[in-house]
Amino acid sequence: MKRNSKNKFFRIPDFRWIICGFLILFSFTSQLIGQTPKVSFKDSLDHKMDMSDWILTAHGFMPVPTIITEPAVGGFGGGLFAVFIKPNTPYIDTVKGQVVKTHAKSTIYGVGGIYTINGTWAAGAATQGVIKKWRSVYRLVGAYADANLTFYKQFQEAGEQSFEFNMRVVPMYGQLLKEFGHSHWSAGANYLWLKTKLMRTNSEFHEPQDVESTISLPGLVLDYDKRDNDFTPNKGLRWNTVLNTSAEWLGSDYTYYAVNSALFAWIPISDKLYSGYRTEYQQMWDDAPFFMLPFITMRGIPAARYQGRQTVVAETEWRWDFTNRWSAVGFGGAGKAIQENYTFSESPWRWAGGMGGRYLIARKLRLRA
Questions:
Q1: What are the strands, taking DSSP E only, across the chain?
Q2: Residue 108 to residues 20, 73, 88, 150: CA-CA distances in angstroms?
Q3: Which of 201-232 are b and which e, b meaning 16 or more Cβ less than 10 Å from the residue's Cβ?
């Protein structure tokens, strides 16, 4: 990698570094599987393509190629990720003289990157693990992104205007949640450290301090998770609420407060038809930079297209398993972004929907992709 003399960030010339790293990783895991007998890419029940044994027996990774159609980063691109999954044995407890087994989340490692036609690229790694002694789950994420993004702002006389930025971002994130007793409730803390530099600026859109800034954002997390599966749930409920604060005494260039609360529900309609629901509320107070303001996060709506001090989203997804392997998916929803000096009723609803398909790629993990 070459250091850019004009700033403190690293800049990689193209996407080939990510591809090379992925190929090295594939070569290494291919050698491992060569040492492991009786690993098949066909399922023992229906003899269809299945990666369960590759993931569970050979400890191989799941390659996840992704087509990117996000308008905020050019409308077309691709991503390549390697994901390792290791299921953990359940927690075993003795309650009133009886042995009780409860689900423990899987250990997951992932590494990869993306590239889009407008020159946006990013690379990063993430992990989720379990500390069984504490009945705790941790997450760690690190990345670098060089993104060409479009943001929008509403002016009283000129109406809505768009502004293009090149942003170089280094995010580092960590979270630790501890389960309450033998329940589905967990609580804990998270922390985001974010270094950002704007390479293209516009004084109409942002404050001078936004050009090069640091955010230090700790938070408190409350989580309820009663899904029947971590990867592709068929039924269950999850509620997650996060309270964050950013302050100068924490090493941040900004002082602001934020809340994010999301509720997810999955309800089986029949043996082949499953419905999912999502509602989410976000709000931010005080001196937050424009790129941290909440925006409507929903499939079919460009990222950061509709921002505000508050956002609300309601979305549903329906999955039809028309064969044991293949599924058709339909989704739709609506959201509002309430900007400063506007009321809820004055802010319009934004609607989106679409269709897609999924394949049961790892039956033993109930993972559809």
A1: 2-3, 10-11, 62-68, 77-86, 91-95, 98-102, 107-116, 121-131, 136-155, 159-179, 185-198, 212-225, 236-246, 256-268, 273-286, 310-320, 326-338, 350-362, 367-368
A2: 22, 27, 10, 33
A3: eeeebbeeebeebebbbbbebebbbebeebeb
- Per the document, the length of the chain is 369
Query: CB under 8 Å, gap of 24 or more: what pairs does 2-10 form?
Result: 7/168, 7/197, 7/199, 7/212, 8/197, 9/144, 9/168, 9/170, 9/195, 9/197, 10/144
Contact predicate 188/175, CB 8 Å: yes
User: 242 near 257, Cβ under 8 Å?
Assistant: no
Which is it for strands 91-95 and 98-102: parallel, antiparallel or unpaired? antiparallel
Beta strand pairing call for 350-362 and 367-368? antiparallel
CB–CB of 84/128 below 8 Å?
A: no
**Of 282, 223, 221, 222, nearest in space to 256 by CA:** 282
Cα distances from 237 to residues 230, 234, 277, 302, 312, in angstroms, run 11, 10, 10, 27, 19
Check residue 42 and report its DSSP letter: B
pLDDT digit string (tens) for 210-241?
889 999 999 999 999 999 988 899 999 999 99
Three-class secondary structure of residue 241 per DSSP: strand
Question: pLDDT class for 262, splitting at 50, 70, 90?
Answer: very high
| Phi and psi torsions of 19, nearest 5° | -60, -45
User: What is the rounded distance in angstroms from the CA atom of residue 40 to the CA atom of residue 46?
Assistant: 13
Scan for tokens 């407008």, then name that residue: 118
